[in-house]
Design brief:
Pfam families: Nuc_H_symport. It is found in: Cell membrane. The chain is mainly α. It has one domain: MFS general substrate transporter like domains (Growth Hormone, Chain: A, Up-down Bundle), CATH 1.20.1250. The chain contains 18 helices and no strands. The C terminus is likely disordered.
């Protein structure tokens, strides 16, 4: 489940920025405007604001999670197929928005299904989730290495990865039907309304420790959009070989870090792990800026390797901590709120920031050829991460253990 769910986006999500840039302004078909690569990242953020919370609530109260997962992946398949076909920027963005309204809830549903059926979640979930990272790695190797070896040409700046993604989502929709039954937690009991589930004492927004954690999750995930959407383009323009395949080195680091997470959780406080994740983002962007400034490659390779702590300590540990803080009866909705905070509000604010910095430093309107000033572009998210790390360490108090933590 984890392998195929994350492979679907991995087939095209890494290279879509390169495809958009190849058709921006006077380049290629010219259907995309200056700044669209950055601003298009808002689609994923907008898809994380309402949809995962709503679908999570439905899975908690009305419909089995595996059926909702099938529906979400079919939505993704139709949307990405439309993106492959369209020659309109507006239509592309609308379809991208529809895609993430399916994909983000799909990811939260896989988290819920995994956490629901694992008996030793702290020890087993990171290992299971590492299979999702493996799926992303295999997708990058296929697009970046296998396809060029077989056909003799790169597809990283083409729309072909979109077609591959559509086919993969159809397969994932079928796979979801074979997963263990995951009915609502209170199947057969009194149905609790969404207002009570969201706002009552001890529920989602009535859970103060959970709300505090979600706030810092927004700040911690905000700077990540520069790396997520521009690294492949940066590697291509800087002459690095097989950029999509090279970026899978980061996913390999992520998978190794996931396997080490149970040991880290047994030895280090949550506050320490989360803070280290934020600092890792600061170091990553600083290295990219150094590599750009001095035109040397080793800082870029190290920055890619840092994907393990950058992603795992902010996003994956966050998923596990939300599961501990929340009532199991609200597990789906709690995971939806975590997606709202990280890939929703955090990425939305990050997308707006990265879109503006793209217009200023990379592809300013009316400037031909585009200057692509990478040094200031990378230093801005580095500064944002540093400020977040300082704020977190100065203001965040360790959250007391809940009864669920002590079990």
């Amino acid at each position: 489940m984890m392998f195929f769910q994350h492979l679907t986006l991995g087939l095209w999500g890494v290279t879509v920025g390169t495809y958009l840039a190849a058709n921006t302004g006077s380049q290629g078909t010219g259907i995309f405007s200056s700044g669209f690569v950055g601003f298009s990242t808002a689609a994923g953020a907008l898809g994380s604001i309402v949809a995962p919370v709503l679908i999570g609530f439905v899975s908690d109260r009305y419909v089995s999670a595996q059926y909702l997962l099938t529906a979400a992946n079919l939505t993704c398949a139709i949307s990405v197929w439309g993106m492959y076909q369209t020659q309109s920027e507006l239509v592309f963005f609308c379809l991208l928005l529809a895609y993430y309204h399916g994909f983000i809830p799909a990811v939260t549903l896989t988290n819920k299904i995994g956490l629901r059926h694992l008996k030793r979640r702290d020890a087993e979930y990171p290992i299971v989730r590492s299979c999702g990272t493996l799926g992303w790695i295999m997708a990058g190797l296929f697009v970046g290495l296998a396809w060029p070896m077989i056909t003799g040409e790169s597809i990283e700046s083409s729309r072909t990865p979109l077609l591959l993604g559509a086919c993969a989502h159809v397969l994932m929709a079928l796979l979801a039907l074979t997963l263990p039954a995951t009915p609502p937690e209170r199947w057969g009991t009194k149905v609790v309304g969404i207002r009570e589930a969201m706002f009552a004492k001890g529920s989602i927004l009535g859970n103060r420790p959970l709300v505090v954690f979600l706030f810092f999750s927004i700040l911690a995930s905000l700077p990540s959009m520069a790396y997520n959407n521009f690294t492949n383009l940066f590697l291509n323009r800087s002459g690095f070989p097989s950029p999509a395949a090279l970026m899978t080195v980061g996913q390999t680091s992520e998978m190794l870090f996931l396997l080490a997470t149970p040991l880290l959780l047994a030895r280090m406080r949550f506050k320490t792990l989360f803070a280290l994740g934020i600092v890792a983002w600061t170091l990553r962007y600083s290295l990219l800026a150094i590599g750009s400034m001095f035109e040397i490659s080793w800082p870029t390779y190290v920055a890619i390797l840092l994907h393990g702590p950058c992603y795992t300590l902010i996003y994956i540990v966050g998923v596990m901590y939300v599961d501990k803080l929340g009532d199991p009866a609200h597990r789906g909705a709690a995971q939806g709120f975590h997606a709202f905070a990280t890939t929703g509000m955090g990425h939305l604010l990050g997308a707006l920031t990265v879109g503006m910095t793209q217009q200023v430093f990379l592809t300013p309107h009316g400037v031909e050829p585009p200057p692509y000033q990478w040094v200031p572009f990378w230093l801005i998210p580095a500064a944002m991460s540093l400020v977040t790390a300082i704020l977190f360490m100065l203001t965040f108090s360790p959250i007391p253990a809940t009864p669920q933590d002590e079990q």
